[in-house]
Amino acid sequence: MKTTIPPSIITPSHPDHGLLTAIADEISDRAGGETALAAEFPAMLRQCIDDVIMTPKTGRRSYDELEKTEKTYIGTRVEIELRAMLRLPKGKLDTVILGYDVDIKNTMGSNWMIPTEAQGHPCILVAADEARALCYLGLIVTRPDYLTLGQNKDAKKSISAPGFANILWLLQDHPYPPNFWRTVAPEVVERIFAGQSGNQRMANLFREVQGTPITRDVVEAVAKQQDFMRRIRSDNGRGTRDHLAREGILLLSGHYDAPLISALNLPLCSASEFISYRPVLQAEIDLAARHGIAL
């Protein structure tokens, strides 16, 4: 996305203010409030992208490695998932909000391509900036004055530089989870997936990447097992947690081990995240023991 976006001029005196604020309020209400929207939307967007990259299966680690058709499908996937998240119906365009036909446009670049049938209608604008791990969610009425004069061979137009000021932002420059595999060195990825079994791969993951919250989706993709959650807990000495404990490494769940994670001053983990850590002080080992984990 553009690094410099003009301030929004959607104020009460703007002709689109009433419509866009009403749609924004409806989106926020359907998401469960502004806080819920700010949490769920980035996670949804991250999932849409990662499900197409499929690092564990393909070895690809970034959006840039996708085929053109796969990049196009991400936009379709975002449209479907956003409708599902907000419980919105399908319409003549992508959806209907408060009786208005609304299009949903997604970009991984710096602008959106607006088709002729969506021009003049309210649009939901979605963007992901993979390099900066930022996401965007905005609303605009795609009036001709806000669009470029030029168009592509399909008669699609972009939002002009001045037109960006007519976007009402629900989320702007908002952090969203980076692609986990972009944060890991290639040689580390190779060592993680060198494990022959799910247990071995999960142990490699938490052995190699410590002190960093890791999502359930990453763990599931590495494990390639239906019962990976059983393995990640203590499992009569056979689980990943048991193997790592024998090496002096804690494997903690944000759901079950939140007090210990906090006591060790480790990064905050959500209920669906995990984190590993090798205690270096006897006081930390004793602390783990008091929480029921013997190293």
Describe the structure.
- With 295 residues, the chain is α+β, with helices and mostly antiparallel strands.
- It has two domains: 17-175, DNA mismatch repair MutH/Restriction endonuclease, type II (ECO RV Endonuclease, Chain A, 3-Layer(aba) Sandwich), CATH 3.40.600.10; 184-290, Orthogonal Bundle (Arc Repressor Mutant, subunit A).
- 38% of the residues lie in helices and 17% in strands.
- It has helices at 17-31, 34-53, 55-58, 68-86, 186-192, 198-208, 216-223, 228-232, 240-246, 258-263, 282-290; strands at residues 95-97, 100-107, 113-114, 122-129, 134-141, 157-158, 168-175, 214-215, 250-253, 273-277.
- The strands form three sheets. A five-stranded mixed β-sheet has the order 1-2-4-5-7. The protein has a three-stranded antiparallel β-sheet with strand order 8-10-9. Strands 3-6 form a two-stranded antiparallel sheet.
- The longest helix is centred in the N-terminal third of the chain and has 20 residues, at 34-53.
Integer-rounded radius of gyration: 23 Å
What's the count of strands? 10
Shape: elongated
Low-pLDDT sequence parts: none
The end-to-end span amounts to 46 Å
Largest sheet: 5 strands, mixed
> How is the largest sheet built, in terms of strand order?
1-2-4-5-7
Order of helices and strands: HHHHEEEEEEEHHEHHHEHEH
Quickly give the CATH architecture of the largest domain.
Answer: 3-Layer(aba) Sandwich
What is the number of domains?
A: 2
> Which topology of the largest domain does CATH recognise?
ECO RV Endonuclease, Chain A
The structural class is alpha+beta
The CATH class name of the largest domain reads Alpha Beta
Estimate what percentage of residues fall within beta strands: 15-25%
Going by CATH, what is the homologous superfamily of the largest domain? DNA mismatch repair MutH/Restriction endonuclease, type II
| Overall average pLDDT | 92
User: Helical amount among residues, as a percent range?
Assistant: 25-40%
Number of helices: 11
